[in-house]
Amino acid sequence: MNKTELYRNAGISEDVFRYGEACLKELEERFRTIDERAEYNQIKVLSAFQSAHVSEACLSGTTGYGYNDIGRDTLEEVYARTFHTEAALVRPLIACGTHALAIALFGNLRPGDEALSITGRPYDTLEEVIGIRPARGSLREYGVTYREVDLKADGSFDLEGIRAAISDKTALVMIQRSKGYASRRTLSVSQIREAIRAVKEVRADLICMVDNCYGEFVETEEPSDAGADLIVGSLIKNPGGGLAPSGGYICGRKECVENASFRMTCPGLGSEIGPSLTLNRSFYQGFFMAPVVTAAALKGAIFAAALYERLGYEVLPDSREERHDIIQAITLGSPEAVTAFCRGIQSGAPVDSFVTPEAWDMPGYDDPVIMAAGAFVMGSSIELSADGPLRPPYNVYFQGGLTWPSAKFGILRSLQSMLDAGIISPDRLSADLKSTCNRTAITVE
Ligand SMILES: *Cc1c(COP(=O)(O)O)cnc(C)c1O
After folding, report:
1. Domain spanning 60-287: CATH 3.30.870.10
2. Does any ligand 1 atom lie closer than 6 A to the CB of residue 240?
3. Which of 130, 367, 368, 386 shows the greatest Cβ crowding within 10 Å of its Cβ?
4. What's the rounded Cα separation, in Å, for the pair 222 and 211?
5. Whose CA is nearest to atom 13 of ligand 1?
6. Does ligand 1 have an atom closer than 6 angstroms to the CB of 259?
7. What pTM, to 2 d.p., does this model score?
8. Mind listing the pLDDT tens digit for each residue in 217-252?
């Protein structure tokens, strides 16, 4: 069986397959750069394993209080060494990224303090943590106030606005690296460096906390290399490498991480307790795999951008620009298109490929959200997944893919699904294909 037949048997028409191959031709150079970055990050992680003396004993876990959990403590040292921080918390006790961010905020803010977001409105689920939307137990209920400074129209930091917003009350500055569910650009580590420098020039004692979700290992530096006091993320995204079944991390300055630890467990106990149970092996192995898994996800994102921008959809980022996270936003323009796209992604998954996703009211989100995720780990978005809140302009956010070939397959499936639903006409595809073939003279075996 040749490749075209293989794909046809797997539900991808010849036109869709050929269309994908034509797009790929133009991405070779980009993919090489991604592989080089993955190599750099892989050696960075491997060196951290070696200098922290990861041993076989680290791979098993503890129960009960988890005192003297060598696997847990060494894993935290591996994270700290990789991200160049004084300390780290990497725990299954941390339920998700939002929880990690909430712990970092509650642990480092006191009544009367103000948190200042300098990347505008934060990720949806944080609105309730902060109390932007009224919620029981929010920071606001504990007397912590909140302010935000929007990014400028071009997506860069409003340094003047930031300087002006810092007051005596300001205690912590929040920076969200990734766009989340917003139509803006993801920030680069070098932009974050510049913003942190501006903040520290006003008040050197301010804690700069970066929501690093989806950003890990995309560049060769992390925000912790750029002056951040805290970086926070989820293990069912990049750093879990697809193998961590749950968990979150908080890395940064010792005092800030300790403050967070007293919120993670309780005052007095901090990071001393919390068993790793049976999870150490998958946490280590996932972190070890994370650089190449992130690279696979990046290739998928760029491929999706290339595919859909040629069909005239607005994509962010586009297929040529520099990447700072693994998220690909595509503006599909209608709820039907978002639904067809997500159903295609779902049908390309290794698990639950036969189910049909529907939009639902997810806890923590304001609008109904449709999600496609046929994942080994429930809700994991380092695995091939797509989600979109059903609100104009009907963006779909695509991310993940544990391996590049499976990411490619899922994206081709999304296109097939859009065709089958009548959202994209077959003529449109073949016309574009004809002009492409003339241009690059591709051959398909
Ligand atoms: C995923 C994410 C979070 C946390 O989400 P969880 O679903 O709670 O893990 C926070 N901020 C950003 C930018 C994210 O992408």
Report:
1. no
2. no
3. 386
4. 11
5. 180
6. no
7. 0.95
8. 999 999 999 999 999 999 999 999 999 999 999 999
